[in-house]
Amino acid sequence: MTTASRLTATQEYSLAFAAAVVTANAYYIHPIIGDVAAHFGVSEARIGLVPALNQIALAVGILLLLPLGDRYSNRRLTILFASGQTISLAIMTLAQSFVGFTAGSTLLGFFTIAPYLLPAYASKRVAPERLGHVTALLTAGVILGILIARVGAGWVAEHYGWRLVYWIATGLMLAVTLALPRLMEGGERDRGGESYWALVFSVFALARRHREVLLSGAIQALNFAQFIALWLALALYLTAPPLGYGTDVVGYLAAIAAVSILSTPRLGRWADRIGARRARFVFACIQLVGIALFWPLGGSLWGIIIPLVIVNLVGPGIDVTGRMTFLSLEPDLRTRLTTVYIVLMFIGGGIGSIGGTAVYGRFGWAGVCIALTASSALLTVLCWVAAKKGK
Q: Cβ(48)–Cβ(176) under 8 Å?
């Protein structure tokens, strides 16, 4: 790699901003889901289809589209998929029916591949001693994108209506899509090797050979399902009687997730010392306590903050330690094993989306709390099994 081909500091921060924008699109719906349901006149259970199909389409997209990154230019694919996201957001913004809005959201999920291509692109254009810094910078962009999307969407929807949220999102995506050809240098050639379908099917063969990635993926699927179900149900609960808060309050609560930016690196270092599987079990136990507190403390906004802080402190640690269980394997296997893990995670997100809203619609907040506690207990048991097997 020549010096001229390396990323400048401006390009690094610009790509982190791009990572934030392309990631944020899936999370605008969280605080405003009640407003969207009311606008289209659909029930709590039916509105859950929007994030559910988005997450499932994302899993399908990762399985079918991400392997292209092993054959074709990351730059070309990133620009192509970002264009697909922009078109999908425009469909959502202009949709006059629930079906049209849901179709746009589903298409958006399918094309949300850029967050997984940008780190691969950047890793080839930085000096080895700066790889960790740039990877962390892009990861921070992803986390901040999620936080700003949820906080900003709640505030904008409360003061100007939910439709403006998607006008802004479409504008940001259009700007990023137009900027990417200038931010991302060319010169990367398409590569030969295995055929596209051989790459896709090799993922299944690797999963059969490395069963622990399936267990780690199942654990993270439950973890992510709980995260999605909690926030969607919480948005419906807080904005409905008797609490009756605005969507801006839901957005402000979402900012609590910022604690994970501080806690996750420390939890990762601790997991390095005691082992990923053991650490994951400890995190799962703490998270179970936090989730169990939602029922007794859920009668007030201030009470809800306590379990939210606990869950956001350790929840991302479960994901980090899950990835650690297979990222120590051979380098040429890691991308495809990560594909298995991420696909399972987003399938869990889809189930959590429809499950959280459906349970809330049928059984209310108490039903959601019971379901989340049961799910968290199962997750903890799986973490214990994995820790025992890993010894």
A: no
Pull the structure tokens for residue 361. 């619609």
Of the candidates 352, 351, 253, which has an alpha carbon nearest to the alpha carbon of residue 304?
Answer: 253
pLDDT of 140? 77
pLDDT tens per residue, range 301-344: 999 999 999 999 998 889 888 888 876 666 667 777 888 889 99
CA R_g for the chain: 20
CB 228 within 8 A of CB 150: no
Q: Hey, which bits of 248-325 come out as E strands?
A: none
Task: Answer yes or no: are the C-beta atoms of 295 and 373 closer than 8 Å.
Answer: yes
Q: With beta carbons less than 8 A apart as the criterion, state whether 11 and 137 touch.
A: no
Is residue 281 within 8 Å of residue 389, measured between CB atoms?
Answer: no
pLDDT at position 317 is: 87
What average pLDDT does the chain have?
A: 88
Give the three-state DSSP class for 291.
helix
> Once rounded to an integer, what is the mean pLDDT over residues 293-301?
93
Q: Do 199 and 70 meet the contact criterion of CB atoms below 8 Å apart?
A: yes
Euclidean distance between CA atoms 160 and 24, whole angstroms: 19
Which class for 206: exposed (0-12), middle (13-18), buried (19 or more C-beta within 10 A)? Answer: middle
Nearest 10 degrees: Cα torsion 178, 184, 185, 189? -100
Say if residues 67 and 206 touch (Cβ distance below 8 Å).
no
**What is the pLDDT at residue 191?**
62
- What phi and psi, each to the nearest 5 degrees, are found at residue 328? -90, 0
CB 331 within 8 A of CB 205: no
**Structural domains of the chain, with CATH:** 9-184 (1.20.1250.20), 195-391 (1.20.1250.20)
- List Cβ neighbours of 320 (8 Å cut-off, separation of 6 or more): 264, 267, 268, 271
Residue 153 has pLDDT above 50, yes or no: yes
Task: Using alpha carbons, select from 96, 116, 92 the residue that is nearest to residue 104.
Answer: 92
Is the preceding peptide bond at 67 cis, omega within 30 degrees of 0?
Answer: no
